[in-house]
Amino acid sequence: xxxxxxxISAGEASGEMYGxxxxxxLRRRDPSMEMFGVGGDRMRAVGCDTVVDTKDLxxxxxxxxxxxxxxxxxxxxxxxxxxxxxxxxxxxxxxxxAFNWRVARQMHKRGVPVVYYVCPQFWAWRQGRVRxxxxxxxxxxxxxxxxxxxxxDRGVDAxxxxxxxxxxxxxxxxxxxxxxxxxxxPAKPWITLMPGSRVKEVRMNLPTMLESAARLGWGYxxxxxxxxxxDRNFLESLMARPLPVRLVAEALPALHLSRAGIIASGTAxxxxxxxxxxxxxxxxxxxxxxxxxxxRVKVSHFAMVxxxxxxxxxxxxxxxxxxxxxxxxxxxxxxxYGPARDQMIEGLARVKASLRGxxxxxxxxxxxxxxxxxxxxxxxxxxxxx
Length: 386
Hints:
Elements: E1 5-10, H1 13-29, E2 34-39, H2 41-45, E3 48-53, H3 69-86, E4 90-94, H4 97-109, E5 114-117, H5 130-136, E6 139-142, H6 147-153, E7 158-160, H7 175-182, E8 190-194, H8 199-216, E9 221-225, H9 232-237, E10 245-248, H10 251-257, E11 260-264, H11 267-274, E12 279-283, H12 287-293, H13 304-309, E13 316-318, H14 324-334, H15 339-354, H16 365-377
Parallel strand pairs: 1-2, 1-4, 2-3, 4-5, 5-6, 6-7, 8-9, 8-11, 9-10, 11-12, 12-13
Helix pairs in contact: 1-16, 3-4, 4-5, 8-14
């Protein structure tokens, strides 16, 4: 019997990380499985043959995507051509709905079952697009507790498996050794800057973060993790003025060792919550993107941790509210020990607990996702919780 073959498409840095976790979990069940699709270094490291690199799809915003359409469509057609040649038994698409619902549609047309892992946030905006999942997706594996009911109510076979980051352990890293390796002063408080994983959003977010760092002054040191989808030289080009900012390789050790963070909206906010690091959430897109997108937003909060909690745990500074003065003011509330900092840490702990899955004793979310996918491959019905 030939090995099972799976197409996996992960279109951005966070999705690529989840894809690597999932591939590793699937291979533990069946080492003979063949994986190919869209990914990056982490997915290649666990055995995925990447036909398209995730970096080629790292685009943000309604206006920003237009200039990249020819390249993105080229990537899409290359992937589908490879799928026609390899004939996968199943397709797994991860996040990145603008690209992946088209992949899902093409696989559906070819009779290939489709699993959507880390579903689009259609509950936040464009809720009518749920019909795309209902039409093209065999199984939805969702990572936020409120998503399961939302999608089920709209006719999608959805199961909450827990967030892939929910069980992240604190990095086993020594502060002094880390400081020495990254030329940091261990006596100063550190603040992590995370402006996003795509070039356009970094251009929109990082300059104000750096200005905020300058305003806070040399009594702090600032850590800027280099996302896998970004080039170190690009980040250095945006750091024109002398500042106590150090580029570092990984986000989690930086967050774990930092006193606080300035974090762009997205997966990084969940990472900060997992590391119990207080932070200010910020975000800015182009005026056109904001003008077109804001009326469609259906939720009361932008920060994922606030959405999960159903209340504002971390401050949200979006678009015109994302100013140096407001960033510094909100950071100064949570940097010192006191009630504001304690309250935020307690709120982040509640969010972390809620993301562990329906039963805290269950396997890691990637293992649960792999179990559901294996069941589909074996022709079994995946049983959802009532």
